[in-house]
Amino acid sequence: MVSISRQAPPSVAVAPPPPAALEKAAEAAPPNAVSAPAQGLQDVFEAMQSAQGPNNTVTTSPPGATVEAAPPVVDLAQADLKDPKTIEDLSKIFGIEETHLQKRVSDSEFDGALVGADKTIKMGDRGGVKDQGPIKLEDIEGFTPKNGRLRSNETIIQVNGINTTLSQQKQALQATADATGSKVVGIHNATDGFVGDLMQSVGDKTNMGKNLAVDALRDTVLSELKAGHNVHLMAHSQGGLITSRALGQVSDELKKEGKSDLMYKVSAETFGAASGRYPDGPRYVHYVNTKDPVSNMFGVEGATSFKNHPGQDAMGRKAVVIPFEEKSGIAAHNYNDVYMSHRRDFNLAYNGPGMVVQDPSRYQNPFKRD
């Protein structure tokens, strides 16, 4: 087991938000969250002076793992995205071509839509039509394994990340169905290009601005929980931010109704997520590629995440963080080929293999070596 400290994390500076926003962020912080740096409460995307310490340490990783050198600093809050130098710096940070930084497609009409194998229901149409009630998760045909073998009767709800078109999300939904053996339905996070999505992520980080994908996920989770169903979420990249924000709103709503205990029925997996904080109640498993610039900066192990709090379940058990190392730059952020290849069964990842009874009077750890 090797302990890796992020000594040279990517640095992203953002101007502090108004005092009222800081007060709101402080009030929203879970009581058991890690304390803020000594210099006081700063912005969610604050570039910390040092990334060493328990908040920014990966506890397990392949031997010999390394961390990329720090790229240029970009102020996301005040950056002039029409400035060629700013675009160049962003390209260097994320290792992507400049042509992919700006909006390439127009799928805004599907923002917050339910995405199934048979149809895509726009958010505005989910209320149903005359003489029909609101469209529910069970009303849409999800993606299923290509081999036709369903290994569970659950429906996974998946939220895509930045710079992902509707067609690309459908490919990811199929990849998830194949990997999990489950039915999978998506909630679409429409893209405005890498730069536009990054700016929206700033709003999600600070809980400011409207994001239709957040609203759609919140409403879907609330509906499922109130119907007595378990909820299994999977989120990539900005989808982790959307999930964090939506679950925070779900928690607030359930608290008002005296039903906070329903949060324990939520299981959430994140992959290279851009959020470092998650509300308590659900069971969490977070996958972190130590070569991924997105999670390295903004995720649960990120150098710039605000008061990292990966979340803990209703019994007080902390989230499981699973690090690994593969590729580099934006290639390391790939969901289908990189993150899915490292995913484990959720219960196995969260609970471990358990105890194997070799003898009625003796328990043995199955991973123990003589």
Can you put this structure into words, describing what you see?
It is a single chain. This protein has one domain (4-364). Helix content is 28%, strand content 14%. It is built from nine helices and 14 strands. The protein has an eight-stranded mixed sheet, sandwiched between helices. A two-stranded antiparallel sheet has the order 1-3. A two-stranded parallel sheet has the order 2-4. α7 links the parallel β11 and β12 (320-324). α3 (166-180) packs parallel to α8 (335-342), α4 (193-205) packs parallel to α6 and α5 packs across α6 (238-256). Mean pLDDT is 75; it is low at 1-75 and 355-370.
Short key terms for the protein model shown above:
9 helices, disordered C terminus, globular, alpha/beta, two-stranded antiparallel sheet, 370 residues, eight-stranded mixed sheet
Please tell me the overall pLDDT: 75
What's the Cα radius of gyration? Answer: 20 Å
Give the % helix: 25-40%
User: Strand arrangement, largest sheet?
Assistant: 6-5-8-7-9-10-11-12
Order of helices and strands: EEHEEHEEEHEHHEHEEHEHHEE
First-to-last CA distance: 17 Å
Into which percentage range does the β-strand content fall?
5-15%
Whole-number total of structural domains: 1
InterPro entries: AB_hydrolase_fold
Region (Disordered): 1-39
Biased composition (Low complexity): 21-38
Layout: helices, strands, pairs:
Blueprint lengths: L3 E2 L6 E2 L5 H10 L28 E2 L15 E2 L8 H11 L19 E2 L4 E2 L33 E5 L6 H15 L2 E5 L5 H13 L6 H15 L4 E6 L1 H19 L9 E6 L11 E7 L3 H6 L21 E5 L10 H8 L3 H6 L4 E4 L2 E3 L6
Parallel strand pairs: 2-4, 7-8, 7-9, 9-10, 10-11, 11-12
Antiparallel strand pairs: 1-3, 5-6, 5-8, 13-14
